[in-house]
Amino acid sequence: MISLDSKLELVRVHYRGATVRRRARVLTGSDGRFPTQVEIAGLPLSLDDSRVSLRADDDRIVVTGVRVSLHIKPRNEVIEEPNTERLKELRREIEVHQARSRQLELEIGMLESMEVPERPEPEEGQAPPPSPMTARLALEQFVNSSVEERLATLREARKELREMREEQAAIERAVTLLSSSKTARADEITKMVTARLEVEGIDLPDEVVLVLDYTVPGARWAPQYQCRISKLGTSAEIQMRAVVCQASGEDWRGVKLELSTADPVLWTDLPELSSIRIGKAQPQPAAIKGFRPAPQGASQLFSDFDRDYAVVRRVVPSPAAWTPPYVQAPSAPDLVDSAPSVNRMSDKGGYARDHEAEELDLLCEPTPDAVASYAPPPPPAYAPAPQAMPVPMKEAAVPRRQEEAKMKKSAPPRPSTAPGGAGIGRGGEGFGGLPSEPAAAQSWAFSKLRLRSFDDALRGKLNPVDVRSAYLEDLGRSHLNVGFDVLSLVQTAYSRALEVLRLGLPSGSSDVRQAAGWFDYAYQSASCVDIPADGVFHSVPVDTREAGCEMEYVVVPREDPSVYRVASLHNASKGPLLPGQTEVYLGGEFILSTPLPTVAPGERFRLGLGVEQAIKCARNTHFTETRSGSAVVATAELWHEIEIEIANNLKREIKLEVRERIPCPDTDAEVVVEEIAGDVSPPWMPYDQKELNLELTGGRRWRVSVPAAEKMTLKAKYVVKIYANNELVGGNRREA
After folding, report:
1. Neighbours of 385 (CB within 10 A)
2. Angstrom distance (rounded) from CA 303 to CA 577
3. Residue 354 phi, psi (nearest 5)
4. Which of 183, 206, 236 is the last residue of a domain?
5. CB 448 within 8 A of CB 463
6. 346: closest CA among 396, 381, 397, 389?
7. How many domains does the chain have?
8. Displacement of CA 154 from its chain's centroid (Å)
């Protein structure tokens, strides 16, 4: 097995999830042989095992047996074995020195408590008794010399004790370091893809590039834009940006980015429509190749094997039951020897089983005589986990075997692990407890299927393997102790990646899936980008495209005399512009931020740029009311004149759109509104405002060109006719 170094090349971010592409080089060995088994490690734990593909860029190389497993990077440091015998000896010597020190401290205390007797007091009227000065001095000298001697000995003992404790601490650190070097850490575990390479033909390639694609769930994106318009408004460019968030577990550094609106797990295909012809009958077309169910009666293939196997088991004598020898239990556990060994895994969670449990399994296995028919025996039930601390075999071996056998017989039946089941493995905690897999990992890959043993009830069918057992089997090759649940570690990474999908989009952003509708498109970044796996939105550039620009001006003097700038842009790219927040710059200065609607390829769209202070607009109206005659049915004519004056103070000609509105009576109203066509200068045209999805009745507009530093006057006139004895609601004057 050759380990290959891979490099991130491309990341395709979908509206939910991402597809990552890596490239790895395979070279022919110095012996002239091409590698047959390769592995690519360092992949994130959130990787979807069922959506991994590996291919070669050379047609002569066939990639087979692709599977995903767990991997721990080999540790190159060589740790010297600590001297455990010296550690035991130090512990004994430390106990001796501690006892000696306590004895010296006790003796010093006793000596210091000795007092020289004072001279006795004389009786009244008599001479004082003689004082043994020599004896008193000798006693005081004896106490002082004895204390000094023991203090010197105590200082030496404490010095030796300190040195021995330092040496003990150094050896214990070495033991701890050795133990940690043989124990796997959760942050060291990554996923790995292994595959077999087969060369078709005689010529061996010198170099082959393998392309690895895999899917991770925790990624999303939304579009943003920057529109930069020239000062005169004659040209513009649109820079598409994207806010990307990902928590896949690996940083994307220096990768090409593709932003797609498609669903990475949704398969779509064009339907094949059958042709219908009028005329002579024609034979039915050939059936389309696809999935076909397995042939019926496949279980009959095992009948001959079951018959012969049962005969052999009746003829061959059964081996005698093996009784394990008696081993005297140690009186007290050794602190050094109780450390976990190199090849032993923790019993918690069913990762490993000790020798005693294996012996119990052997004793509880059914004998060959138990087979009484040609049918295969039912699948064996699972035994509970052994205790963590072993008990003396002399006292508890036989009762424990009986108890284990009873529990094994009464264990609940093993749930089905067929692909259509509710989950993988067995629920619950302890040995064999297996939580359900992520939803995205329920689609089974062929590498996750195995054929059962001949004595299994599900033999002859591909069945999914236990994920935890498969992961632990892969980690067992590293010869490290695994003291945690690897499946929970993988599920935690998967759940942490899914938290990205619950984040709210930045202000002004929209969901790309809803914006794209039934059509999907992928945007490619023009340069490499960096996106860390921190679960935070990062703004990255995608590409910059030129857009034809025409500056227009719009005014609605009936509502507001301000003249507004509007840039009419053209989407000249082949892809659509999805809705998103747009930062608009005019002549290098930031003007405003506005939402951009969905723009199809080749379509024109407009961006408002605010008020143009250099263009002035004034609206004046005139009203007169006349009577058409003196008859009973005489009518009142309400004449309205509109006069709009435009002053262009810019140094260039402008295109101005002036919007107006005249009254529109209801269908059953006894009111008539007539435009005086000869008095509208220049002529205007109807305006329904459908581009804003707000239909307008009675709308009119002028589209004129105003030269630089000149003025223009627009005039319009209409009349409202009503019966003379009537009056309009709100007054006859329609224009203020």
Report:
1. 18
2. 65
3. -80, 175
4. 183
5. no
6. 389
7. 2
8. 64
- For residue 69 the two structure tokens come to 């497993």
Q: Does any domain span residue 511?
A: no
Number of CB atoms found within 10 A of residue 505's CB: 16
**Both structure tokens of 135:** 């004896």
Angle 40-439-262 from CA coordinates, rounded to 5°: 75
Sign of the Cα pseudo-torsion (287, 292, 296, 298, in order):
positive
Report helix angle 486-498 to 467-475, nearest 10: 110
* Residues 580/568, Cβ–Cβ less than 8 Å: no
> What is the token pair recorded at 246?
């990902």
Cis peptide before 399 (omega within 30 of 0): no
Token digits of residue 54: 């590996």
What token pair was written down for 636?
């009142």
Q: Could you report the per-residue pLDDT of 400-415, keeping only the tens digit for each?
A: 444 444 444 444 444 3
Is 37's pLDDT higher than 70?
yes
CA 507 from centroid of its chain's CA atoms: 22
Of the residues 158, 183, 208, the one at which a domain ends = 183
User: According to the model, what pLDDT value does residue 446 have?
Assistant: 67
The reply to whether 329 falls in a domain is no
3-state SS track over 121-180: CCCCCCCCCCCCHHHHHHHHHHHHHHHHHHHHHHHHHHHHHHHHHHHHHHHHHHHHHHHH
- Number of helices (H) and strands (E), helices first, in the chain? 8, 27
Per-residue pLDDT, averaged over 492-512, amounts to 89
Domain carrying residue 714 = 615-723
Spatial contact of 563 and 555, defined as CB atoms under 8 Å apart: yes
CB-based contact 567:236 (threshold 8 Å) = yes
- Count of C-beta atoms within a 10 Å radius of residue 286: 6
pLDDT of 303 > 50? The answer is yes
User: Residue 535 pLDDT more than 80?
Assistant: yes
Q: What is the pLDDT of residue 420?
A: 34
Q: What is the DSSP string of 574-620?
A: SS-B--EEEEEEETTEEEEEEEE--B-TT-EEEEEEEE-TTEEEEEE
From 529, 531, 543, 527, select the one nearest 577 (Cα to Cα). 543
Spatial separation of the C-alpha atoms in residues 586 and 608, rounded to whole Å = 11
Spell out where 470-537 has E strands: 522-524, 529-531
Burial class (CB in 10 A: 0-12, 13-18, 19+), 218: buried
Per the structure block, which two tokens stand in for 346? 């923790």
Check residues 446 and 561 and name the one with the higher pLDDT: 561
Measure the CA–CA gap between 460 and 376, rounded to whole angstroms: 12
Q: Is 261 in contact with 517 (CB distance < 8 Å)?
A: no
**Cβ distance 243 to 259 under 8 Å?**
no
Helices 84-112/133-181 angle, 10° precision? 160
End-to-end CA distance of the chain: 89
Length of the chain as a residue count = 736
272 CB-contact burial (10 Å; exposed 0-12 / middle 13-18 / buried 19+):
exposed
- In three-state secondary structure terms, 295 is coil
Report the pLDDT averaged over residues 327-345.
Answer: 38
Q: In the block, which residue shows the tokens 């009518």?
A: 635
**In a domain? residue 349:** no
Using pLDDT thresholds of 50, 70 and 90, give the confidence band for residue 444: low
The reply to whether 635 falls in a domain is yes
pTM value > 0.85: no
Express each pLDDT in 544-575 by its tens digit.
888 888 899 999 999 999 999 999 998 888 88
Phi/psi for 86 (5° steps) reads -65, -35
- Angle (nearest 5°) at CA 410 between 407 and 414: 105
Classify 568 as helix, strand or coil.
strand
What local confidence, expressed as pLDDT, does residue 268 receive?
67
Which helix (H) or strand (E) segment is 22 a member of? Answer: strand 18-27
User: In the prediction, which pLDDT does 487 show?
Assistant: 86
